[in-house]
Amino acid sequence: MKFANLITKGDKVKNYGDDMQVHAIKLLYEYMGINYSDVVRITINELFTYDGEEYLIVPINLPFLGRYPAISPKIIPVYLGISVLNSSVADSLKWKEYEPIGCRDQHTLEVARECGVQAYLNGCMTITLPKLVNRGKADKVYIIDVCDELLDKIPKELKESAIYKTQQVWGRIVTEEESLAAYAEYQREARLVITSRLHCAVPCLAWGIPVILAMKSISHRMMWLHRLMPIYDEKSFDKIDWNPQPIDIEELKKLIKENAARRLRDTWDKYYSQYRISEIYEDSSIKDVVLDGLKEPIEYMRCNWTMKEGRYKYIIWCVVQTADNLYKYITEEYRNAELIGVIDVYKATDFHGIPTGNLELLENLDDDVTVFVATAAANLMAIQTFQRLGIKNYVICWNNGKYADEAAKRIELIEER
Asked: How far is residue 231's CA from residue 306's CA, in Å, rounded to a whole number?
């Protein structure tokens, strides 16, 4: 088992902030004393497709706003700062299995709790970035992705000397190095940052760079910040403090980092032994294994159901796991085969839309119908019934050879008595 971190990709559009959110997890690993060269890097898509030899613990500190398949069984997510729009992803992201969920906004917190999932409001881990010291001659104003309405309100003396930037890049691949280089410029040069970007404002707040966060309308994803700093919308542009001071959040940062580190360590302690054992035994290269209970039916079908498109008819005796496996195999391999009846003498139930019946289903059975006996517990009764009714077209799924012969002999002895 290993720790992992995500890689963000954006072939058509990329926001520098995506990489900064991942970079915050790298710094968390360093804070924990984990050598980052030992950390596995995977893409977001690999959260759902990963099938490597080692299980991976993956801290999640990103918004998940799409629709997703189930997370890979070899991924152990630790939700530190996730944002979603509704509960449609709760099952695929396995929230209940991996609670508590660290949410980055109030809306996500409420969604998680409505799902009956333990959750807490953590914000984004970028707020834990280390405070900058000895910045020297950081004297530039950066205006980054602001709306025209805000631009009209910015004092002339700030605009005239400002450097204008964007964190959104279109039409080309942006590397992590490029994203982090953009932030490094703010770290070296900025005395003030004016922006509408959440992941421009939060890193600057953490670094101790004075920042003004303002936009036409405030996103729900930003409201977790409102107790730490002003967030301005168009209605409050006239109230903006154009000379903000750095905000001291060092105690909060320490609390967030300690909680996140503890959750990762606890996750490691919880899962390491069981998954290390599993890693030793697992072998994903083993593919062509016939499940117990299917060997005899498959051999029978290869010899007797010679046409894949043939319209074969069959009955399954006893609703057990082998019955489901058998039905699945026949449905996939012989799509025109028809299940015409299901026998279960112990319980009345429904099997893939067909209600179970009793042995009367075998009375006057056509010769072209095959009966599959899906459990060894029914072998003796089944063989006795087949002999009594003269049914010869059947398959004993379990213990077919020796057990079937012994069952027949026992029937003969009973009849002799």
From this structure: 72
- pLDDT tens for 116-162 read 999 999 999 999 999 998 877 889 999 999 999 999 999 999 998 89
Contacts of 408 (CB under 8 A, 6+ apart): 383, 387
Residue showing tokens 């894949």:
308
Q: Cα–Cα distance between 66 and 149 in angstroms, integer?
A: 31
Distance CA 230, CA 222 (A): 11
Q: Coil, strand or helix: which one is 133?
A: coil
What is the maximum span of the chain, computed from C-alpha positions, in angstroms? 112
Question: What separation in angstroms does the CA of 246 have from each of 131, 139, 210?
Answer: 10, 14, 5
Element at 382 (helix H, strand E): helix 379-389
Closest CA to 163 of 143, 184, 137: 143
| Residue spans of beta strands (DSSP E) within 330-396 | 338-343, 350-351, 354-355, 369-373, 394-396
SS3 sequence of 47-113: HHHCCCCCCEEEEECCECCCCCCCCCCCEEEEECCEECCCHHHCCCCCCCCCCCEEECCHHHHHHHH
* Residue pLDDT, tens place only, 216-271: 999 999 999 999 999 999 999 999 999 999 999 999 999 999 999 999 999 999 99
Work out the angle between the directed axes of helices 295-304 and 321-333 (0-180°, nearest 10): 30
This prediction's pTM: 0.81
376 closest CA partner among 402, 355, 350, 356: 402
What are the backbone dihedrals phi and psi of residue 62, each rounded to the nearest 5 degrees, phi first?
Answer: -150, 160
H or E stretch at 315: strand 313-317
How buried is residue 355: exposed, middle or buried, by Cβ count under 10 Å (0-12/13-18/19+)?
Answer: exposed
Nearest alpha carbon to residue 22 among 101, 129, 145 = 129
Query: What DSSP element (H or E) covers 327?
Result: helix 321-333
